[in-house]
Write a structure and sequence with these properties.
The chain is mostly helical. It contains ten helices and no strands. Helix 6 crosses helix 7. The radius of gyration is 16 Å and the shape is globular. The chain starts with 19 loop residues before the first helix and ends with a helix.
C-alpha cells in the first residue's frame, strides 16, 4: 500500500488521503466557512478535497492549497522575488495579456472553460510548458508552480459563488487586479 510520502510514477494519480471533513476543518479554523451554512458549501468542499487532496503531502500542504482560493492580493504577489523571476522570463507578459483577453468575459471558469482558455492562449503565443503555465498560475493563484495550482484555479469561480464561504475573488477579478497592479 502506498502512503502519502511515497513517490508516484509520472502520469498516475496519487491516492487521496483526505476527506471532506479535513477541508471543512481547515475552512472553519481559518474563518472561511460560516458554520450555519456548511450544508450549502458541501458541494464545493467535496470538489476541493477531490482536486487538492492528491496533491497535498500533509494537512499543512492541503491548508496552503486551500488558502490560495481565499487569499489573493496582487500587490503582495508583485512584491515577491519569485514573481519577478517569472515575469522576467521570455513571453511572460505576452501570456498574461492573452490570459486577460480570454478571461475578461464574466463566464465562470470550470474545467472545460479553463481548457478552452489555455487552448486559446496557445493559439495566440508561441510558448509552451513553464513559459506558458507559470505566468498563468502566478497571475491566478499568486504562485508559479506545478499542476496542483491548476486545480486551485478550477475552484475559484465555484468558491466565489458558494453560499457560506468567505469571499473569493473570481478568475476575472484576479486577472483584472493583477493587470492593473502590474503596470
Amino acid at each position: 500500500m502506498m502512503t502519502v510520502g511515497d513517490s508516484v510514477p509520472s502520469g498516475e494519480p496519487r491516492a487521496n488521503p483526505y476527506v471532506a471533513s479535513d477541508v471543512e476543518a481547515i475552512l472553519v479554523e481559518r474563518g472561511w466557512l460560516d458554520i450555519s451554512l456548511r450544508c450549502e458549501a458541501q458541494e464545493w468542499i467535496t470538489l476541493a478535497v477531490r482536486l487538492l487532496g492528491p496533491h497535498a503531502s500533509d494537512r499543512a500542504a492541503l491548508g496552503e492549497l486551500v488558502s490560495l482560493c481565499f487569499e489573493y492580493d496582487a500587490r503582495s504577489i508583485l512584491s515577491a522575488a519569485a514573481t519577478h523571476a517569472v515575469l522576467a522570463r521570455e513571453g511572460a507578459r505576452e501570456v498574461i495579456r492573452a490570459l486577460a483577453l480570454e478571461t475578461i468575459a464574466a463566464e465562470p471558469v470550470d474545467s472545460d472553460r479553463f481548457r478552452m482558455i489555455v487552448e486559446a492562449i496557445k493559439a495566440r503565443v508561441p510558448y509552451r510548458s513553464r513559459l506558458l503555465f507559470h505566468p498563468i498560475r502566478l497571475t491566478l493563484t499568486g504562485r508559479a508552480g506545478e499542476g496542483e495550482l491548476d486545480r486551485v484555479i478550477l475552484l475559484l469561480d465555484a468558491a466565489a459563488h458558494t453560499l457560506g464561504l468567505a469571499p473569493v475573488k473570481t478568475v476575472r477579478r484576479r486577472i483584472l487586479e493583477f493587470c492593473s497592479t502590474l503596470d
